Structure formats: C-alpha cells, structure tokens
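In this supplementary section we document a worked example of the pipeline. Step one takes a protein sequence of length 463 as its only input; no multiple sequence alignment statistics are reported here. Step two produces a three-dimensional model, which step three serialises into structure tokens for compact storage. The input and output of this example are shown verbatim.
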Amino acid sequence: MTKTNSYIDEHLSRFTEELMSLLRIPSVSADPAYTASVLACANEVAVHLKKIGMDAVEVIPTKGHPIVFGEKIINPSLPTILVYGHYDVQPADPIDLWHSPAFEPVIKTTEIHPEGAIFARGACDDKGQFYMHVKAVEAMLSSGELPCNVKFMIEGEEEIGSEHLGYFVKEHKAKLAADVILVSDTGMIANDVPSVTTGLRGLSYVEVEVTGPNRDLHSGLYGGCVKNPLNALCEMIASLHDENGKITVDGFYDSVVEISRADRDAMAQAPFSEEAYKKALNIQDTYGEKGYTTPERGSIRPTLDVNGIWGGYIGEGAKTVIASQAFAKISMRLVPNQDPEEITNLFQTHFERIAPPGVVVKVTPHHGGQAAVTPLDSIGYRAAALAYKETFGKEAIPVRSGGSIPIVAMFEQELGLKTILMGFGLDSDAIHSPNEHFGLFNYRMGIKTIPYFYKHFVELSNI
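The serialised model returned by step three reads:
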C-alpha cells in the first residue's frame, strides 16, 4: 500500500475540502422541508463516486429518499467488499446552541483534537466516515493497488430508521452480492486506543398514551376525585425498574444469554475510568443494573429508558388543570437473542396490566431491530484488527456498543453477510448534538486504515 499512502498524503488537503463541500448540503431526512437538499446530496455523492472511477453509479429512487449505488469489479473471482454508509443527517436543532452555523463547516482545534476538527452537522455521523471509504478507494484505484472488488450503497434514511432500505436490499440481492459488509458509523475508544465494534444492541421503541377524563379538568374542582393521567403515567414508569435497576416487564429477560466470565474479563481490558466518566457528564454517580460494571450496563445488558414525556400545561405562568392525556416515548435496548417484536408485545401486555383504575392505556410500537455480534475469529474481524495494527501500531480492542444499527442484523438475514464496524469517531464528537465535529486526525487515519482492511481481507480469504 506504499503508493496508496503516498497518494493519500499528497491529496489529503483536497479530501478535506471535498468533505466540507458535502457538509454544506443540509440533507436532513426527517424534515420534508429539506427533501430537495437530501436529493441534491444524493446526486453529489453519485458525482463523487463517478469521479473516483466507480462503474454503474446510480441514484436509485425509493418510496422515500434515494439510495446511491456504485461498483468496481476488477475480477469476479476476487472477494467483494460492500461499503454501507448514509448521507442523511440529523436536524441541527437546537440551533442557538451551535457555536458556528451547523451547515457552514469550520475547522477548529480542541483539547482532544489538537490537529483540528471539522465542526458541522454530519461531520462524524456519517458523512465524514462514509467519505473516508470513498477517498480510500480513490487512492487505491489511482495507485493501482485496489486488491479486490468494491461496491457502495449509501442511503438517505438512516436517521429516520432506514424505512425503505430493507425493501431495496430484498429487491437487489444480486446487485449487492458480496463477501463482507464494511461500515464506518461507529467510533473507537480514543485516538491512541483503536477499537473495533463487535456487537450492537437491538431496539424496541414505543410510544405510550394514558387517557383519563374526556377533557382537561379544573384541578381545584376535580383534584382528588379523578385519576390524573400524568400522575398515573409517572407511577407506571417508575415501576418499570426495581430497587436493583432490573427491568420489571414480565418475561423481559427470558431470552437473554449471559455473557461468560471470560468474555467479561476480556471486555474489561478496555480502559475505563468511572471518575472520568462521571466528571465528563457532570453527575454525582452512575446508575444501572446491580452486579454489572458501567461499561457492561452500556453494552451487554438490556435497558429501558424514557426518551420523552409530556402532557398538560407547560406554558408560561400557571394553569391549574388536570390533563386529559399524558404521553411518553420509551426505548428498550436489547441484547442478542431478544426479539424486538416479542419484547414490544411483552412491554405492551405489561404496561396495560399495570394501568391503575380510571385511565386507559394505548401502546403504539415504532421501529425496532435485532442485536448483532461479529465473531472475533471471522476473516472480517481479523482483517480489521490487522489493518488497525498497520496504521496505529497497536492491537485494536474488540468492544460491544450500546447503540443499535438495526440494518446490520437485516443485512445478515437478507444477504447472509457479517458486517465489520470500523468506526473512527470519538464519544466526544457530539453526534446528534449541537457542535458535532470530526477530528482531522480521525479522518486521515480512517482513509489510511481502510485500504489495509482490503489488503488483509483478500490475503486471509485466500488462506
């Protein structure tokens, strides 16, 4: 990869400028007001794929936002790597908390990123990370060192649940045929501690509605006489965990497979400071299921959290009212072997059962997804570990992520392929938050590490 590395060094400044140009497009998939911008971004991604020499580049319509596809088949007998990413981004809100406009990228130095970081919505999630792959392939093609076939599938709905990606994958299995899927939509432990994400939690997401009287009531005339839906909702939510932090939904843990002591000990090799964790979040103490460490609670154990709760009067001043309805959004992160549909049904049954007299409960399921695990002895993981060793000079640590990428399980189900998650972002990069950013060091190291994955994947596949 000598020529590839030289090419990257020579063109790195241009690579950065191109990424910043892409970041200026406000491709917010959740807001219909940005539909034209989302399409413009898809077209721009297609332009970049064509420029680097990809063939059969298409902007393929779906019932939602389009998917960009391109491929380079240098020899059908060689392995094929399918690169997945997404060009859509989260809304920039709250706007007033950004230090610079969300879609006007700027480079600023920080304590963690002394070389500088690009501040913009989508810088890390996921434009900066998928674009590393585009530039890595450009470098390999331009230097004549691309060792295998490559396909790109870059979608525009990841931030809204990839609603139409599953249909696309089912309809285009031949087009997407490959040997492994490569994704950079995760992170690593630190700039001096490379890591590979080997597990993702699944997800069950629901909205609950608690209804009491047929209208809002005067709290003086009716207080103490009818069940207040807001009080009821708070009581019900509070009962969803016991005193040991364990979830009380009947049957919730029935399918959970306990991680072996050996695997837990291996995970514990990742550096972690409880005190630094608390200081970074400005909290007095951590919380979670008894018997597990903080990193374990955030990765190998299932969770249940309220993501939003509302109802009644929340305007200026006072309004003495008993609201007719109360609402909450609840997410449950799941571990391997927990089926999201089953968990959703268990939650619905449990929540309806614990409703006190005087209120009616409605549970509306939203999206969900299966957990996924990549074996450490797989060719894909071994290739990734060797790639990080080449560029970082040290062994990568396998980590289980607490997050969910439901499409990873879908890829395995529909295409029969494992996904390798080579993320280069950091927890401090503020994805989904104001002032999202991506380090120039991370961007460069991603572009330099990815070609080595190709190299080692081919070599290991031929053993």
